[in-house]
Amino acid sequence: MSAKLSRRSFLGWSALALSPAAAFAQGGPPSEGFAGLGASARGFAEVKRGVVLRFPEDHGAHPDFRIEWWYVTANLKGEDGAEYGAQWTLFRQAAMPGPQGEGWANQQVWMGHAAVTSATEHFFAERFARGGVGQAGVELSPFRAFIDNWSLQGSVATAPLTLSPLEVTAAGPNFAYTLRLTATRDLVLQGDHGFSQKSDRGQASYYYSQPNFHAQGVLTFGDRMIPVAGRAWMDREWSSQPLAADQSGWDWFSLQFDDGDKLMLFRLRHTDGTSYRAGTWIGRDGSAEVLPSDGIELSPVAWSKVGAKSIPTKWRLAIPARGVSIETEAINPQSWMALSFPYWEGPVRCRGTHAGIGYLEMTGY
Amino acid sequence: MLNVVNLTKSYRTPQGPLAVLRGVDLSVAAGESVALTGESGSGKSTLLHLCAGLDQADSGEIRLGDDVITGLPDAARAALRRDRLGLVFQQFNLIPSLSVADNLAFQARIAGRMDRPWLEELIVRLGLKALLDRYPEQLSGGQQQRVAIGRALAVKPLFVLADEPTGNLDEATADEVVELARDLIRRTGCGFLMVTHSLRLAEKLDRRVHLHSGRIV
Amino acid sequence: MKRLCWVLAVLLSHWRRHPMQLATLVVGLIAATALWSGVQAINAQARQSYDRAAAAFGGGNTAMLVASDGGMFSQDLFAALRRAGWPVSPVLEGRIVVNNVNLRLIGIEPITLPREAGPGPRFGSGDLAAFLLPPGRTLVSAATLRELNLAENATPSIGEIGALPPLKVVNDLVDNLAVVDIGAAQRLLQRQGQLSRLLVGPDSGLRAPLAEIAGRQLNFVAAGSESDLDRLTQSFHTNLTAFGLLSFVVGLFIVHSAIGLAFEQRLPTMRTLRACGISAAGLTAALLVELVSLALIAGFIGCAGGYLIAALLLPDVAVSLRGLYGAQVPGQLTLEPIWWLASIGMSVFGALAAAGYSLAKVSRLPLLATAHPYAWRAVQQRWLTWQGVVAVFILLSSLVILRFGDGLITGFALLATIMIGAALGLPIILGTWLSFAERLARSATAKWFWADSRQQLSGLSLALMALLLALAVNIGVGTMVRSFNQTFAGWLDQRLGAEIYFNATSDAQAAKMLEGLRGNPDVLAILPTPRADAQIGGWPVEVLGFSDHPTYRDSWPLLEARPHVWAHIASGKAALVSEQLARRLSLSPGAELRVSTPQGELRLTVGGIYPDYGNAKGQIGLANDVLFAHWPQTPHVRYGLRVKKGAVPALVAQLRRETGLPPNRLIDQGALKAESLQIFNKTFAVTASLNAFTLGVAGIALLTSLLTLGNSRLPQLAPLWAIGLPRRSLAVLELVKTMALALFTSLIAVPLGLVVAWCLLAVVNVKAFGWRLPFHVFPDQIVRLIVVAMIAALLAALLPIIKLARQRPADLMRVFSNER
Fold first, then answer.
1. pTM of the predicted model as reported, rounded to 2 decimal places
2. Which 3 state secondary structure label does DSSP give A267?
3. Residue A333 structural domain
4. Domain count, chain C
């Protein structure tokens, strides 16, 4: 199972924006937001084990489910070898269950996040939209997820099982980027054929990834245009009640090792101080294996001052069963997404038994 | 105590500079009372004002105890007047909005040298006990001048300077006031310089110096 | 510190002995602060209201895209622009009638709404979900809810269309505005898929050129573009501020004379203090502490007074602004802490300014008093000469402003220079007059009288200047208001030609009414009075429809017209243009007029220009046929009825019974005239109140100056008494002298006031409102004001003179025994 952690910020946003409970409005601890979610899942479609995901249909929106996202992160290098990161996310939330309303009466609310990161700079932006009027949405033929002028767009050549090729583009007040994403391997179904359980209490989501993208394009920082190339990872997930009530934040990693293996792992921090760990090992052949919770070691080793906050930007990860013992380090420790619902997200590199690159997302700090 | 050496002072007038003091030398010892006499315009008030630091001399030196008054800035001269000097004027110069009691205590208060028993003694000896709640305008000239003397002495000054203190008083009152002042000043042991045009009053003091055309003669 | 306290105690003891002086000083400061801060409070409140009104989802604060033709446009443009990177948010605006209350309905989209655009529900407010999800919400101000006579959560229905979402009160909304979700607005206004405008949020990165997305359908309106409302209300507030400043200055005159007097009287005390060993710096510090403390106390009381004045005047101001410009200002006062601080600061600043001269004098106070009365006089003379030079210079600059200036601020600058110049020149004019009178005088007493008046002039000149300004402003504003009133009443008579006007709720209702009216023998004519909205030169313009009927031909007021104008209008070739529009577009009869209409551009000739007082919008009038042809959507609901005299009340009652039309839709012309005049009178109620306040303060200034002089008069009067003038005669002479000075000042105030009135009517009004008013002089008003001024002067002079008449001979005698 996986939890793309900015999901938390999205859900936080959902609760803040749309829950009638005033308590959430005061920016209370995240767990309250999740409690709100648990309570209002009724009326939405349920996530069930054994449902077969179908493509390209499941690339599109699932409006009967409460939340959903299209999530791309890219680790990139400039021609001079400098490291960069790019993020593109589209969230969807249904404000209420039931038949889809027409026009302005449509109950879907969309949110976009985009960012570019270098060792010294980090630019980001957000967009909001209502469904039903053509400002944001997801179309299938050809594939196109968009909000305003940000898009993740395929073409007639886009294959359903690789979701390749795609073009992802976004722009903010002082940045822009366009990347072309291509992959030759098929996407990977997470968990049990795409059924990803989230807790012992039944929360789950549908979840698949395309971790095999090659990315090429141009990043714009201010007025500098930088040609880049690298690797990208896309996550797709939708659910109606994916989270436990007592989770205070996440630390989430997607790592691509130089030898071709990939690792996704995270811990859910609980309000009582304990945490729940989970991960998936994706072999260079594309095979995915769920890692047992007690087989993952994960601890912060160094903290950075980000504004008034202290954020762990250096971590030690170990999976003894696979002989993995590495340290990850943020390429830019100041990758703070100071948006309506803030969190930390940025590219990392890792050293140790396995070298590579990846993305780290941390919420609830 | 008070030493004046070669003091000169002139005023600008439309008709050119007018030399009022042309090299005055004067010395008053502690406990000594001196009358300064002279005709109108002889410069006796000017000399007194210079000694009080109310005005600045052109040249020469005035020394009070160890302090050289001449050349001090305004604030220092003000402090000197406040702490070391008692001044008595012809116009009495009481503060009209303060009662007699407050007028008496005023200088001692701003000097931070309030001595209650001494003030009480002064009030008794100046005969002001029954007048304490009155205001200056409700007093006769002699009474007002007694209040002014009380104010000057309340601070236990090193030196008392009086400028025609009896100018507005009738003869009998004038005698009474001067004698009272002389006796009190003698008691405190401070020096006393009084400007007067009255030889009769001048004789009541220890010594008399006469100023003529800007010089002591 | 302790020493400072003792010095302060001595200084303050003066006030205990002279409470009247203290009262004068404090009253002056309070009056100055109260009037100034009161006016500031009114201005602040009104501005805040405009900001809110302007921020009501499309005003000065936010950049906008609007349709080039001034109408609605398709919602598809919204999505297309968003997808091209434009951070736009849709708004639909229209009007609805709920419970007989006409409301502005605005539909917004809170998720994309720019933060500065208006008080929409925010993320994190918890209200967002309630606003967005069924049944939604209708946001209104508390006052609107009261006017609707409904409770929160009520869902009033509007006709057959449906019900409003549940009502909910929010604080920051202007009155008569209902805010709903864009979807609800489209349903309620029956404008599915249509928008009125797009608000443009802050820069969000790359965006495609507007024309690429929307062709020429939309125009970009930059944020901060000055709207007509801004421009118009600005003039009103400049006006009020000028009044406030004038009152403040007059108040400071009082403070100045009170401080000057206290300074003079405490001079011996201060000398004694210096002699007893207080340094000049120490004394100045003590005086400053005393002054600032008094100013703080007075400032605080003044603030409270200002608050009261503002609370008292605000309802009138609200009516004024609504009447003049249609600007919405709630009649309730809410003030920021900064206002209190600023007001108290103003009091301190004013006190320091008024005391500046005295304080400077103290810091250089010679220890030894040397009386130099003649030197002082020479200084005064030099000062007067300089004042005269400055006055002439300022008056000359007013001529320059008049010749070359343009714009509203120029109008006020002109007023300011004329008034300041005249005020500064006053002592010189009075002095000249007095010395002339002195030369003419024969008897010794008369000679002394005039010479003494001249000597007193310098002490009284500040108060007389205050009187001059207050009177001139009163005459000027009074003349303007009366001129306006006279013109307006005559214009109403001409303009409202029909006896009854009605505005039916639907075409069907109107048709049914007309059916009944056609058979009614009391009804002499039925005149359709359709109205439409258009844009000419980017300015919103009302379009009136005229019937070809004597009602218009005979009585419609015209300022300028071509021959046979009504025939040209009837033929559809010409239109009448309101004065405001004509001025704005520099149109004169014969000019070509291009109007964009739903049916394309309409070209007409300007047939004539008519006055349209009190309308912030431009207006044109053309033949009914032309109007209906070019604005086919115009409902056939507005009519005027010519009715036999005497039959009006019965017919109005009958129509009301039959149709249930509320009074604002079924109007008896007589009642409308009365109502219009009432609105008009209220419009200038604030001005009248401020006038009264200013005159009152000028009276206080005169009183305090005279009281101040009264004390120093003793030495001057005592010799006269000694040589045989009885006290009573002295008192009468004093009174006559004061009255003569006041009268002469009043006489100078008359031409000055008329110049002020002319500036207001011919310069300021034209800039502010777009119309020029005929200038009338009202002698009765001027005489009344002079009488009031003389009474004020008499009252002010009486107290010190009674004091003089009752002066004990002993006091007079003491002058001789006691004078330095």
1. 0.56
2. strand
3. 57-362
4. 3
C-alpha C659/C-alpha C510 separation (Å) is 9
**What is the per-residue burial (b if ≥16 Cβ within 10 Å, else e) of C769-796?**
bbbebeeeebeebbeebbebbeebbbeb
Task: List the structure tokens of A280.
Answer: 């998936």
How many Å apart are CA C717 and CA C733, to the nearest integer? 11
Using a 10 angstrom Cβ sphere, with 0-12 exposed, 13-18 middle and 19 or more buried, the burial of residue C605 is middle
Of C173, C198, C223, which marks where a domain is finished?
C223
What are the residues facing C501 on neighbouring strands?
C640, C667
Say if residue C46 is in the same domain as residue C132. Answer: no
Kindly report the CA angle at B42 between B36 and B48, in degrees rounded to 5? 45
Each residue's pLDDT tens digit, C608-664: 998 876 666 788 999 999 999 998 888 888 899 999 888 888 888 888 888 877 666
Residues C195 and C118 in one domain: yes
Q: How many domains does chain A have?
A: 1
User: Would you say the ipTM is above 0.90?
Assistant: no
Give the domain extent around C582. 496-672
Query: Looking at the structure, do residues C635 and C538 belong to the same domain, yes or no?
Result: yes
Chains A and C touch (3+ CB pairs under 8 A): yes
By CA distance, what is A173's nearest residue in C? C205
Q: Are residues C97 and C17 in the same domain?
A: no
**pLDDT tens digits along C70-103:** 678 999 999 999 999 999 999 998 878 888 777 8
Contact C269/B at CB under 8 A: yes
Q: Is residue A348 part of a domain?
A: yes
Summarised one tens digit per residue, pLDDT across range A184-210 is 999 998 888 888 877 666 678 899 999
Q: Which of C258, C278, C237 is nearest to C705 (CA)?
A: C258
B79 and C276: CB-CB below 8 Å?
A: no
d(C-alpha B139, C-alpha A301), whole Å? 91
First to last CA, chain C: 34
Both structure tokens of C391 = 């006055």
Are C254 and C340 in the same domain?
Answer: yes
Q: B28: which 2 tokens?
A: 């008053």
B118 near C CB under 8 A: no
Using the 3D structure, point to which of C190, C223, C256 is the last residue of a domain: C223
Question: Residues of C with CB below 8 A from A130's CB?
Answer: 109, 111-112, 132
Residue with tokens 């009480």: B120
Count CA within 13 A, CB hemisphere, residue C613: 26
**Quick check: B27 and B3 in contact, CB under 8 A?**
yes
Token pair recorded at residue A217:
């394009």
In a domain, C110, yes or no: yes
Chain C touched by A184 (CB under 8 Å): no
Query: How far is Cα C596 from Cα C573, in angstroms, rounded to an integer?
Result: 16
Please spell the DSSP secondary structure of A186-249, one letter per residue: PPEE-TBTTEEE--TTS-EEEEEEEEEEEEEEEEEETTEEEEEEEEEEEEEEEESS---TTEEE
Q: Burial of A127 by CB count in 10 Å (0-12 exposed, 13-18 middle, 19+ buried)?
A: buried
Q: What is d(CA C164, CA C793) in angstroms, rounded to the nearest whole number?
A: 62
The pLDDT-based confidence of C678 (bands split at 50, 70, 90) is low
- Residue to mutate among C1, C13, C267, C272, with most B CBs inside 10 A, is C272
Q: Are residues C146 and C203 in the same domain?
A: yes
Residue C663 lies in a domain: yes
Query: Do C638 and C598 belong to one domain?
Result: yes
Statement to judge: residues C75 and C104 lie in one domain: yes
Of A72, A177, A166, A79, the closest CA to residue A121 belongs to: A177
Tell me whether B72 touches chain C (CB under 8 Å).
Answer: no
Is the sign of the CA dihedral C324, C330, C331, C333 positive or negative? negative
- The token duo for C763 is 């310069």
Q: What is the CATH number of the domain that holds A172?
A: 2.40.370.10
**Chains adjacent to C (≥3 CB pairs closer than 8 angstroms):** A, B
In a domain, C680, yes or no: no
With contact defined as beta carbons under 8 Å apart, do C777 and C493 qualify?
Answer: no
Residue C156 maps to a domain: yes
- As given in the structure block, the two tokens for residue A105 are 């009466």
